[in-house]
Amino acid sequence: MKVAVAGCCHGALDKLYETLELLQRRHGVRPDLLLCCGDFQAVRNEADLRCMAVPAKYRHMQSFYRYYSGEKKAPVLTVFIGGNHEASNHLQELPYGGWVAPNIYYLGYAGVVRFRGVRIGGISGIFKSHDYRKGHFECPPYNQQTIRSAYHVRNIEVFKLKQLKRPMDIFMSHDWPRSIYHYGNKKQLLKMKSFFRQEVESNTLGSPAASELLQHLKPTYWFSAHLHVKFAAFMQHQTNSKEELPKATKFLALDKCLPHRDFLQIIDVEHDPAAGDSLEYDAEWIAVLKATNSLINVTQSLWNMPENNGLHAKWDYSVTEEAIKEVLEELNHNLKIPCNFTLTAACYDPSKPQKNMEPVHTINPQTTEFCAQFGLTDINDRIQQVKEEGSVREYEEEEEEEEMDSTGSAEEPSEYNTDNSGLSSINPDEIMLDDEGGDEDLSTCSVDPSPDHPPEFSASFSDIRIMPDSMAVSSDDAMDSNNEELEKSGVSKQAEEKSLNERPLKRIGGNENGNTGIKKIKRRNQAIYAAEDEDKTE
């Protein structure tokens, strides 16, 4: 089957689908599936725009809301991962993945699905070592820190993916696996992006977590975006035994979706002709989610995944064939992902702009249904529970203080930092990208991959290199050198409660926009969203 792969979409869905239609008209090429490697920007309304960590000049509604409202429908099944320019409040509703619009599926923080027998996995966000060992604790309203940390990769997602044993056909990450640039035309890359030189030479460009997954999963294809330049590489993996067959990964990074940019690639992938045309759950991945459910953490506390280091009674959470069989039996061998998309927020109306719309923390019915079906923890519901538990203790403490000091009449300060300067200061995590450059194709394609010349993925690779042991990235590389003493796996309930000591956000009922029965958390302070964000892009 034919698979189209796109880089950073930045909400330009109309342009993306129009390009696919142009390919079909001119060349008869009609993809069966579209994959997007992050910065998708599933923005539904003005509140979603405020939850994007981007400069004000990049806060545009674009065209996703038309697909969300039903005005338009994606002409091809679209599967995407999150990047670092996202409406984090929207994607956070679907930590295990789900439909953001009809025919448009988000893989979640990490996920694996199947389409026509092809196994497709992905991990959302970008790597930052200072947040890597935290839990998913963020929720709207975001502050200067959490509006960014919300899209940072966490060790638990990498740990889950490393429990997989079955072969992976396609994998997506937003940022590049660290070291991958050593397996392609590095000289040409540095010619086009000279400011990468220091990080390339010190082997610090890219994600060590993604590199770890690349070595473990060894997928046939690995696609990334983020750096706004097209780059191809071919990695021959080392085998662990003489009996193991050699494996290789074709890596391709895509440019962003702009006119005259090479942002789209078409590849032919072997598939199962007997498989249906529906997107399906992956049984092994569901079994892994069930096996690792006890490791869920919704605190800011730094913690490590279980290792075979004498500190953990269990460190291997990979699943048996029997566990996979149990999942299949639970589903009556029907792995089709239900088309249960639900509107959970008001849709943007160009004729009635709502500049003061407040973002809220929403528990999505898709996630509720998924967790109930497989016995999993709804991360957002757990965050709310911890906040509410903390609220009860705070209220009791305040009552005691009032009894002791009846003169305490000063106005209670907001629990959220109202200083907006943080959103207009320089973010030390940012990577500056030269948007004027990068027009030259670094994948050494022999044809111009434009609507006039459909791209051929097989022509993108010119050499094969084997990754030496010295290039391997251990889990230690994913930690800050100044971190406190490593904590044992598993966080107690008391620690969860203590770490989320902010006042709780109230739940509100349904409204006229079809949100009846959806639990929400109302934001109490919108000052953080009022500032004009002049950050450089991350």
From TrEMBL:
Q: Name one Pfam family in it.
A: Metallophos
Domain Lariat debranching enzyme C-terminal, by residue range, is: 235-380
Q: Where is the composition biased (Acidic residues)?
A: 395-405, 431-442
Q: Where is the composition biased (Polar residues)?
A: 415-427
Question: Its Gene Ontology molecular function terms?
Answer: metal ion binding; RNA lariat debranching enzyme activity
Q: What cofactor requirement does the entry state?
A: Zn(2+); Mn(2+); Fe(2+)
Keyword Ligase in record: no
Q: Where is this region: Disordered?
A: 388-538
**Protein name, per record:** DBR1 enzyme
